[in-house]
Design goal:
Its EC number is 3.2.1.39. It catalyses: Hydrolysis of (1->3)-beta-D-glucosidic linkages in (1->3)-beta-D-glucans. The protein contains 4 helices and 27 strands. Strands 1, 7, 11, 14, 15, 17, 19, 20, 21, 22 and 23 form an 11-stranded mixed β-sheet that branches. Strands 2, 8, 9, 10, 16, 18, 24, 25, 26 and 27 form a 10-stranded mixed β-sheet that branches. Strands 3-6 form a two-stranded antiparallel ribbon. The structure holds 2-acetamido-2-deoxy-beta-D-glucopyranose (NAG) (7 copies).
Length: about 400
């Protein structure tokens, strides 16, 4: 390969990545979401309450390709405080193309805090037993979102979770028993295991508030850094926060999408959106963020959502026009987004993956924590050839 040419390719890539400071927007769009990649699912969790606790991932990776991969797989929906959730809904569509008014979305789940109803919604939280390699297990969440309940429970109307407190929403479909070839794969057997939300073309709507933190001590982790994000639903069913990379498929790239996330206390009023897989990056910890942020309203409620369309366009928007109807017509959805789109930022993802999934890498398989990925020198060639693919 010609050296000068490679250098200019790298320079172009870096310029493309670094230029243009982040600005305040109402919508964050990603085009060309989905690529040809692979991840390694967890196939074994052993002695989970012993010091000898260990996990293993498949020796043969699960490959994927096509629209919205790998998040075309089932996802769970995660919430971190300070946050109060008023409404949540999940939708699927046979066919929806951003900007095209044909088609519709059908609501499959709906939570309404004022009504105290949670249709096809199961609230879980990490209030289970602590395992040396898996961390805390999921349990049903009680009305406060963070204590353990013994059966599915709807959150109390005014439930505010504080910094670093989290709950998760799954569907109400229970998993078959844990097993490599079963519907939910291998999972931690002492948890209430539920399916996530399926669909290549899907949408999630949220009405929520993220008030300024006043209750937690400033030194708590993730202080005043609220977030709403999606994970491949396999991740929380094995281990969301683990120090062992083999206890979750996260490190190998089974997928995370951050919808509305405060990244640090300096920018505590900015909500960013980030993809964590290997599309266009070899740094899964940092992921690939949209080049703009949506304002976090510290006082009022916010309404918005994320839609994955049938052509690999994914858009996060905030607009008070958004409603939670049982059927959402494509035209209505486009009009909500269009309002927000006047002030939007778009990132077109490269088709290539910049790294092969690393099963053996050291460091945390944790989402929302940092630990660097060391890129082996030998992979530079791969990086260069992948860059050539998309420039
Ligand atoms: C799941 O939710 C649907 C929709 O609300 C409801 O019809 C169904 O009875 C629920 N199933 C279970 C097992 O709770
Ligand atoms: C949970 O277990 C891990 C690993 O053994 C340990 O480091 C951590 O301190 C435990 N957490 C609590 C709150 O007991
Ligand atoms: C509940 O959500 C799951 C996951 O998306 C879906 O498979 C199921 O059909 C939904 N149930 C109903 C009654 O719509
Ligand atoms: C929000 O809380 C932080 C402390 O966490 C404080 O520094 C800041 O002034 C507060 N912002 C407003 C607008 O009150
Ligand atoms: C906070 O996060 C934003 C977005 O990722 C980043 O641009 C900024 O440098 C971060 N600030 C600090 C102090 O880390
Ligand atoms: C908005 O919230 C901030 C921080 O909680 C507070 O300082 C401020 O007074 C509020 N503003 C209004 C207009 O209520
Ligand atoms: C993870 O599994 C791989 C084999 O797939 C093994 O080489 C590696 O040592 C394991 N990592 C840890 C931290 O156990």
């Amino acid at each position: 390969m010609d050296k000068m040419f490679s250098l200019s390719v790298i320079t172009l890539y870096l310029l493309h990545t670094i230029t243009a400071a982040s600005s305040q927007v109402s919508a964050i769009q990603f085009n060309n979401f989905g690529y040809s990649g692979a991840y390694t699912p967890v196939v074994d969790l052993a002695n989970i309450y012993d010091d000898t606790c260990s996990c293993a991932v498949a020796s043969k990776p699960t490959t994927f390709s096509g629209t919205n991969t790998p998040l075309n797989e089932e996802v769970s929906v995660h919430f971190r405080g300070p946050l109060q959730l008023y409404n949540f809904a999940s939708y699927v569509s046979q066919d929806f193309t951003l900007g095209d008014n044909s088609g519709e979305f059908t609501r499959l789940s709906f939570y309404d805090s004022a009504e105290g109803t949670a249709d096809n919604v199961t609230f879980l939280t990490r209030a289970g037993k602590n395992s040396s390699c898996l961390g805390f297990g999921l349990t049903y969440a009680d009305t406060d979102g963070i204590s353990k309940a013994n059966s599915p429970t709807v959150l109390a109307d005014d439930t505010l979770i504080n910094s670093n407190q989290e709950y998760v929403i799954f569907s109400n479909l229970t998993c078959d028993k844990s097993g490599v070839n079963n519907d939910c794969g291998v999972y931690r057997e002492d948890i209430p295991a539920y399916h996530g939300f399926y669909g290549t073309t899907k949408m999630f709507l949220f009405k929520f508030s993220m008030p300024n933190e006043t209750k937690s001590a400033w030194d708590v982790a993730n202080y005043n850094m609220p977030a709403i994000w999606l994970l491949n639903a396999q991740i929380p069913r094995t281990a969301q926060y683990s120090n062992d990379v083999n206890c979750s498929c996260w490190r190998s790239g089974c997928g995370e999408f951050d919808v509305f996330e405060v990244m640090n206390v300096t920018e505590y009023t900015h909500l960013y959106s980030t993809i964590h897989d290997y599309q266009g990056t070899d740094d899964i910890e940092s992921g690939l963020a949209g080049n703009g942020y949506i304002d976090r309203d510290l006082n009022g409620t916010m309404v918005g959502g994320v839609v994955f369309d049938s052509t690999g366009k994914v858009i996060v928007w905030m607009s008070d026009d958004t409603t939670f109807d049982e059927t959402v017509q494509a035209g209505d959805l486009n009009s909500w987004i269009k309002g927000a789109e006047k002030n939007a930022v778009t990132t077109t993802l490269p088709t290539a993956s910049l790294a092969v999934a690393t099963e053996t890498g050291t460091g945390s398989s944790t989402t929302k924590k940092n630990s660097g990925v060391v890129v082996a020198r030998s992979s530079l060639i791969t990086v260069l050839s992948s860059l050539l693919w998309f420039i």
